[in-house]
Amino acid sequence: MANLLVYIEPRDSEAHHASLAVLDASRRLASRLGAALHAVLPCQAPPSYGQDDIVTVLSRHGADKVVLVTGVDSAAPRLFSSHGPALLAACDQ
Prior knowledge:
By secondary structure, the chain is α/β, with parallel strands linked by helices. 40% of the residues lie in helices and 25% in strands.
């Protein structure tokens, strides 16, 4: 079975609106392909869980699973050198 991974760009404690739009479109594609949709969320520490936390929002936008990649500096520019190893680790899993 195929999997689709969508990189979620965090903004403060929320997902960037462009990431949510990509997640919505990917949900439609994953449904057509019979694939699982994984949202990859880089963060310094696991988010707090509540009624409208970021994991719940990603699930509402179609993510079957949310992969938390902790220890990533959210202040660092989103470059392969800072975020690439975390994304590769998520792909390996």
